[in-house]
Amino acid sequence: MRTAIVKFYEPAAIDVSSMNRIVVLEFEGEQGKSVANSLSGQLWQNEFYTVVDRSELSHELQLAAFEQSEEKSHRYHEFLAPARNKGIDGVIMGEVREYRCEDKHVRRTSFSASNGGGMIGSNRAMGTGIGLEFRENLVREAVVTMAFRLVDVETGEIRASREVSHKLSEERELASGKQVSQSEVLNRLTQECLDEIVGMLAPHEATSQIQLAVCDVWTKGRRDVKEGNQQAVRGNWEQAEHHWQTALQIEPNNHAALFNLAIAADHRHEYAVAEELAMQALRLQHKTCYTEGLDKIRTHRNATEKAAEQRDARVATAGEEAW
Asked: How many domains, the chain?
């Protein structure tokens, strides 16, 4: 079974209506400043928001970031005056709650058979033909947890309050080669958390896997469908489509070629074309992978349309403010 990776757009997971200009305050906790800088940079690259440099705001607003109690949230309104004066719509404040990577060395023992009294590793086998083998392993546990709040500057209300956490738990043999450093692990987990937060805050590109269709052995054009599938797996969509179109020229009712062309149209965000091609394939042959693929195409279409609506609403709001 071969699958192809298609791209589509996911909408922001939280209510970001009327949020055009935002600022990310320094996060509390270990690596808080670095995390806030990275989050600001990723949101700027996403191009959904106008990201304001937090250095333009007063120290009093920064203090509001450390208000962790829900009962105190009403105090945000009085602290947010500097942000309102700067025309900022939303403030992101947060905390790095966990940031740790712990290593432990353990000795593992395993039994192995020998041909009598030979040597097993650096350990002498017993006369019974059973020997012991000792290995030094590294057990690593790591976790990065962040929490953030998106505060509406105009009302002082909390639009969203979420926590994200990414973990690693593994055991490796020390003799297996170069070990990844603790800092590299923490950086990767931090980036995974930031990617998840950006996905909540802004429309973003996402990927999905769809199973490619294959021909029955007697179907004309089977070779071209197979070669097209191989190209699609590699991400060579233009070559893949060429092979699938050739298969249709050989056999116009080649439902596998039709369905795979639907996947290619999905990848191009041509969803009306993709749905029609998938329906043609289903009318010729009802297969589970076709119905499941059609459902995914429709899911991608709905998500992409919602993401576009969020971007269009943001542009319209920004235009009204300019007037």
From this structure: 3
